[in-house]
Amino acid sequence: MEKLHGWISFPDLLIWLPLISGLVTFMLRKDKQVKAWSLFASLLTLAVSVLSLVYANDKILNYVSWKWLSTLGASYSLGLDGVGHILSFLTAVSFPLIFAATYKSEYKHSQAFYGLMLLTQAGLMGVFCAMDALVFYFFWELALIPVYFLCSRWGGEKRIQATFKFFIYTFAGSLLMLLGIIVVYLHTNNLMDAGGNIIAPHSFSINAFYDVAARLEPTKQYWLFGLFFIAFAIKMPIFPFHTWQPDTYEQAPAATTMVLSGVMVKMGLFAVIRWLLPMFPAAVDHFGYIVIGLSVIGMIYASLLAMQQDDLKRLVAYSSIAHIGLMCAALFANKQIGTQGVMIQMFSHGINIIGLWIVIDQIEKQTGVRKISQLGGIARKAPALTIMLVVIALANIALPLTNAFVGEFMMFTGLFKYNVWVTAIAGLSIILAAVYTLRMIQHVFYGEVNTLTATMKDIPNSVKWVLGILLVMIFVIGVYPQPLFDLTKDTVASLLTRFK
Amino acid sequence: MNAIILTAIWGVVMMLAGAFIQNKRIPKYLAISGILLILVANCWELYTGQTLFSVDLKDMIHLNSFNLAFISIALICTLMYFLLSGRDFEKVGTHVAEYFALIFFILCGVSLVATFNTLLILFLGIEIMSIPLYILTGSDKRNLKSNEAALKYFLMGSFSTGIMLMGIVLIYGGNSSASFYLNQIHLGVGKMPVMIAAGLVLLMISMSFKVSAAPFHFWTPDVYDGAPTVFTAYMASVVKVAGFFAFMRLFENAFGTIQPQWQNLVVIITAATLVIGNFTAVFQQSVKRMLAYSSIAQAGFMMLAIFAMNLAAKEGLVLYAAAYSLASIGIFAILIKMKDYTISGFNGLAKEQPVLAFAATVFLLSLTGIPLTAGFQAKFYMLLAAINTHHFVWLVILAVGCAAISAYYYFRVIQAIYFKESTDAEPHVWDVTPAFKFLLLLLVAVIIILGVKPELIIDWLHYFPLP
Fold first, then answer.
1. Using CA atoms, how far apart are residues A150 and A244, in angstroms rounded to an integer?
2. Per-window interface: B 131-150 vs A, CB < 8 A
3. Count of alpha carbons within 13 Å of A13, Cβ hemisphere only?
């Protein structure tokens, strides 16, 4: 990346807007002010994100680099490429929707809650924009800390233990990644020109990392791959590192669960695309089949578990593990169409799962339970909610015309090119997904009305609007995904050239 | 040079003040103004290279910007410590001025061990640093635990001093040039002479004792726990990092050329310290004792600098000294204000004292090594230095694993502060003034600024290469 100095740039704004507005939120006193302010701030971020998409090809506006820790060779470098654009847009669009959907929720110390939420957004934006390994690590951790406080303070009954598990898991993973970063960094001064002169001092910049890591001897690459992969696998999560996830989703407050599953798990996938694949092509070739094997095992395993769940939140949590497993498998299959499919699917999955959480949150708020066995007949009481949910749920199992179909189709095509048998087994998860999703719809929304659901009313207008917007996005991407193709084309192409 | 002489002088001034001034508050202000004066003098020396006192040192003391910057850090930490905890000296006993005087003498020792160039000055520095500490440990005269701790500390401390002296003597005797100067020790070609080797091992043992590295750490939990908390804070911060600075300077300047021969020994000590410190800290119920074990754990991380002994390690150790001291002083200052030292004593602190809760959280995050805090940069430098040696990769992985474990016990306190409700209605905290809160927030700001711009310290280390 060439060194460019724009005074103001989109990545800067995307990080600093939520960060500063988050800090301001802590100072506010009144509940209403807090909510209105954070919704406003997140809409502002969304506007910036839309602008960055409009000017997506402008390098000056989308890349920035400042001096920071220059004695070490680090720099505060940010940039938005195709996949960065998609995920930063997902982050930007999901926060206002989440705030709007949970507008009626009451929190003790709401200023702290919303402040931490906005700080999380800043951390996520930083991860998606970082073009320097040290900056990336900083934001990777910074996204974690507010979430830790959000879940532990406003979560369910067993929140402290569940969140602690989540925190220790991810922290241990990140430290291993830090080791990996340092090892690669220490090799970065080995860049020689034709005459054998060292041309670059130590550096954390992404290009130096790409150049150096890919040239390391294979055994070293394997080790480093392991260090990075564990961190990312915990975050995604990939079987067998997934055990923190259902507990955390179950215990976290609804708004935080939406962020966690809608955006935060994408950090792991994104990091694989941004760092792991380009840095260690030899190791990816070498270990690819193991990762794909784990992903496929995880898909089937999680789908089977999802069928057994009685708790709606746990059901969605397991279905999310299955979906992420497919994305991870498609990434490591390393085919152009599959990789592009993953990028699109990351966005679609974020939209769909946030929609599902909103519906579950509404049900829980009105009836006080999340158990499938205790619910029933909601369709008669809340028709609008039911229609929205059915569409979102069908999108979640990738029905044609919905957004997830595009991504899943491409991912399966990629997997098919890799290996037919893997595809066949992975394909089973589609059937299983249909089974548990339809079972859930049947038991919760149809059937007899019982005492718990008898008093249900339909959803408030604000939630209707939010779900409506989600529905529009589902169909628009399902019918016309071309803009997403255009956006990711170059990134995928440059990614795959590293494997030749 | 300024710092060494002025601290000794000011120590005497404080003692006289204790004899003539009856007011309890004045010694504190006198001490703070003294430390400011010394800090200014030291920074001036760092900046211009000139000293107020021209003494023929015979090269027994080595002054360069690296050492002077370290003394500045020690002085700044002491200043913060006086400001935050100075008032709590009164709770220990009536001899407030004398306590301050003893701390000035400790600072004199710190300045000596930061600058020594011969084994004799090292010995003097270590002793000047230790003896006031024995007294401070036992200063709570009517408390049995304090007495026990002081006796234990004194016995163990003098034992290790004996070992150090034996080491120095062996090196002097085994040295054909018959010299105490660090750079004149003849290490021989190939294998070390037996007497030098024996002396080296004895020196390593006694230094490990001073910095409470395993397996010479057994005194630490009892002494830290028994000593009055306000003095534990100083013991666990400035004194400890000064010990490390001396450790590093000794082994770099005297034995740096034959590092491969003693590196294995350091590796064993480091690994043992990391494992023992972190695993035992997990099981503590008292925050004070947990911090004692965590200081062993942090010592394990600082030992990585002695293991690596390269430029990043030297810079990193100073950064670590600053980050660790500031965070420890802060967390101990809050601990002193607590009525109950157990972890459950922190329950519900966030509701009662939001500022204290926030500050304590930042200090604990810094000790854990979370980005944006100084503690992260410090740990980062340590790992960088250790990996750069390209040996003992397992040691680095062990260190990282231990850092993850450390998150467990530090976060237990954070959980108590924010997520648990207190059961009784009584306040948990002694009187807290607005000034105290302001100072805590200032300390938080310093920790975060260092976390974002560690150059603020690193650059000074190479500011003025004095001869």
1. 16
2. none
3. 23
Rg (CA), chain B: 21
**A110-124, A167-181, B183-197, B438-452, range with the lowest pLDDT:** B183-197
Cis peptide before A201 (omega within 30 of 0): no
Tokens 């000017």 belong to: A55
Q: How many CB atoms lie within 10 A of CB A59?
A: 14
A179/B408 CB distance under 8 A: no
Domain boundaries, chain B: 2-461
Task: Render A104-136 in DSSP notation, one character per residue.
Answer: T---TTHHHHHHHHHHHHHHHHHHHHB-BHHHH
Question: CA angle B271-B276-B278, nearest 5°?
Answer: 100
**Residues A5-41: pLDDT tens digits?**
556 788 888 999 999 999 999 888 888 889 999 999 9
Closest Cα in chain A to B398: A176
| CA gap B184, B204 in Å, rounded | 19
What CA–CA distance (Å, rounded) separates A92 from A86? 10
**A216 DSSP 8-state letter:** S
B354 touches chain A (CB under 8 A): no
Residue of B nearest to A166 (CA): B408
Q: How far is B30 from chain A (nearest CA, A)?
A: 38
From the list B120, B121, B207, the residue with the least C-alpha distance to B169 is B120
Phi and psi at residue B54, in whole multiples of 5°?
-100, 110
For an interface test with A, the pick among B319, B365, B383, B419 (most A C-beta atoms closer than 10 Å) comes out as: B419
Beta strands in B200-280 (DSSP E): none
Per-residue tokens: A340: 């592009």
* CA B215-B221-B226 angle, 5° bins: 145
Sequential DSSP letters for B330-386: HHHHHHHHBS--BGGGGTTHHHH-HHHHHHHHHHHHHHHT-TTSHHHHHHHHHHHHH
CA distance readout (Å), B354 to A154, A239, B194, B351: 17, 40, 60, 6
Q: Which residues of B touch A226 (CB under 8 A)?
A: none
* Closest of A287, A319, A317 to residue A438, by C-alpha: A319
Q: Measured between CB atoms, does B463 come within 8 Å of chain A?
A: no
Report the distance separating Cα B434 and Cα B446, nearest Å.
Answer: 18
Per-residue pLDDT tens over the stretch A430-471:
889 999 999 888 888 888 888 777 777 888 888 888 899 999
Confirm or reject contact between B151 and chain A (CB < 8 A): no
Give the distance from residue B217's alpha carbon to the nearest chain A alpha carbon, in angstroms. 26
